[in-house]
Amino acid sequence: MGKSLKIGQREFKFKKDAIVFYRTILNAYDFDQSLNEADYGAVVDLLHYGYINHASADPEGDEDNEMVENEPIESEDDIFIEDVKVARVQFNTKCFEVFYSDNTSAYISYLMLINNKQYDPEKLFYVACRNSVHTDIYAVKRGYFDTHSVKGQVKCQETGILSTWTELAVDHRQPNTFSIIVERFKEVNNFDLEAIEYDSNQHNHIIFKDENLTQRFRDYHKAKANLRIVRKECNSSRSGFARVKKTAKDLTVK
Question: Residue 83: its pLDDT value, please?
């Protein structure tokens, strides 16, 4: 029997009802169109539903190519949501895109947020690693824009297309994708994932309880990651795992 759920002030008898509700919102808009006030509020409610449940999940429950990654609703700098639009993503399909006050954006999947499965130890470790280097990744992108920006645009390092901040993502070059870096970090340290403890900060970000572990991963990531600033569609369509030598264009964490 289906399980009921409450998202914001809306109660859905079955999960499928919530899926139909958000799919209807998504399909009601053209590409690059902002949501109206009511639909905007419904999507923000869904974000809170997903993040709060994830942050409180028990440990038993961008890859770089992932189109969707949970992003903070707020940050230490009081970043807030400015707009929600319908974006065009891979295979000419629709997706919600959330725009933040720091000029960043993130695609979200209403299906992932509604299904909202609890993290298993592997996924929990991965997410905590992601959050450990969030500020480092942002600094790389910010530094590239500060150095190369012309009228608010820089060239995608793969296509050469002039692009805005929201059109670009930080890509981990093969073979050291973010997933590979995390896997090797686990291997060299032989972690017992069941024994690692986690916490969530005031913004519902999942983090390692041990600050030393956070710093150890930041240092390891800094040593292994070769980064590039590329258009989001390039970042979402990576394939193959052939070894790629470091090039002069690669960016690194400072």
Answer: 93
